[in-house]
Amino acid sequence: MIQPPFGKPWLLYVLLGSSLALNLVMVLDRPSSPEDAEVEDEAVAADAEAPAAEAVAAPAAPAIDPASLGEGWQVTAAPVDSNLARTFQLAAGEQGDALAAAYARLFVWELDLRRDLQKGDSVEVIWRPHPTAVVEVLAARFHSRKLGKTLEAWRWQPPGQAFATYWDETGRGVERRLVGGPIQHYEQITALLKDRPKHKGMDFKAPVGAEVLAPAHATVTRTNWNWAANGNCVELQFDDGHIAKLLHLSENKVEAGQRVTAGQVIALSGNTGRSTAPHLHYELHKGEQVVDPLDYHDLEQQQLTGATLEAFLAERARMAATLDQAVAAI
């Protein structure tokens, strides 16, 4: 028999070492228990099924009864598509243009809704067609990426106030008011100078007979010119040289050449001349230049306080819950 080199059985050692290494690899690669093997299999199965699970649509939210909002009220909510008019045309059909105009009127003070819209913005509004207006808005929200916040407008009538107007979530008036403006008791500003190229002033929605005031110390320069377009009207020359025109009045209380003081009642608002609804038209000029009343006057916002603010916040919470539920059901 041949003796191993140096008297050692090297071949036997090699075979034994290889067997030991193979056994160690098999032990380390085996799950530690049957339970561990099952968990691993379930995890793999879950990963394989994940794409299919994501493709399954979430169940629709339960629809709410539209009657819970009151007669005729409906909810429209949609992502902004291109521009505000198209957004509401797609979401509200034939009433879309009118709804877009009423909606834009609420948030024009914070944004230029023709230029400041961004992808990801969205609109929410409770509204209805109205016999004396194109549409009536009860509540509106605009989610703005540009501002990084949501703008809110809630229609509510404070005790003792003649009209319901719009308030934000803090009880502050949404609209800006002209300090020393020509009318104090009105429902809403329905047009601004910049709204239409040929429209040269501001329109205040007010009932026939609301008092019209002189915005400044002035001289009456003329009355009732161009009746077909202006109806009853008064023109004032302010002491600083600006010319003010107040149109569609139901009654004039001054005559050409008369001096008036700031805040004096000079007329009553109406619906005369080329007018489709009771309102006051107010425009300003400096020489040949049309002046925006928003630039001439200081601006202010109303603020609810005390018990009136508490009452509003309670009503706002109720309306917000209704809007949230309605939007979730769309």
The N- to C-terminal Cα distance equals: 94 Å
Report the sheet-strand fraction. 25-35%
Number of extended strands:
17
Structural class: alpha+beta
The percent of residues in helical segments reads 25-40%
Radius of gyration: 36 Å
The assembly state of the depicted protein chains is: single chain
What is the helix tally? 7
Account of the protein in words:
This protein has 330 residues and is α+β, with helices and mostly antiparallel strands. The chain contains 7 helices and 17 strands. It folds into 2 domains: 66-175 and 312-329, Roll (Nuclear Transport Factor 2, Chain: A), CATH 3.10.450.350; 177-300, Distorted Sandwich (Glucose Permease (Domain IIA)). The chain has helices at residues 10-29, 34-54, 84-92, 96-107, 227-230, 293-296, 306-329; strands at residues 74-79, 122-130, 133-144, 149-156, 165-167, 177-178, 188-191, 202-205, 211-213, 218-223, 232-238, 243-252, 259-260, 265-269, 279-286, 289-291, 299-300. Strands 7, 8, 9, 10, 11, 12, 13, 14, 15 and 16 form a 10-stranded antiparallel β-sheet that branches. The chain has a 5-stranded antiparallel β-sheet with strand order 1-2-3-4-5, with helices on both faces. α3 crosses α4. The radius of gyration is 36 Å and the shape is globular.
